[in-house]
Amino acid sequence: MKFKILIYEAEEGGYWAAVPALRGCVSEGETMNETLTNIKEAALGWLEVAAARYQPTEKAQLVEMEL
What we know:
The chain is of the alpha+beta class and 67 residues long. 33% of the residues lie in helices and 18% in strands. The mean pLDDT is 91.
């Protein structure tokens, strides 16, 4: 699964990033690489929490897939 990530230069130095498709999913880092690592971790955590909150009906089938 691919997501678009917006990366901004932080005023105080470093960077911060957001995943527009995952409301409220943001992270930061001192370097671009650190920021990318952190936002990936944040997105995976966001998706994990969303999946845990979802309660499928009897007709639904829950499938996991690797990002």
